[in-house]
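Every protein is a chain of amino acids, and every chain bends into a shape of its own. Below is the pair of lines this work produces for a single protein:
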Amino acid sequence: MPLTRVQKPLYEVKAGLFKGLSHPLRIRILELLSAAPECTVAELQHETGLEPSHLSQHLAVLRRHRLVESERRASHVYYRLASPAVADLLAVARGLLLSLLAGDRDLLADAATLPALPGEATGSR
């Protein structure tokens, strides 16, 4: 059944959500933001090791797809998740990842090195 004129824009927004999540570094940025109420660009740069221009591009994609919000205060720009549901989505994705890797011992062992997500029990992987 084809999408209706009313449904199509909704599915485009949903596809945009997945576009925002479609890069490993953007997922890492979201994980960092899920671990703190907000982070400065400098903190995100330090944690990701990205050049300022690359970090800016990734943050722009995340903003465009409504995954993060930003606020300028004096000379600093602060970023935060646009919704707590983004952190929930990251946790579900982590669980799915571990489930998918269950049959591959090497990758599962590598997954144990991923930084913990907020609310994730230590040693539960």
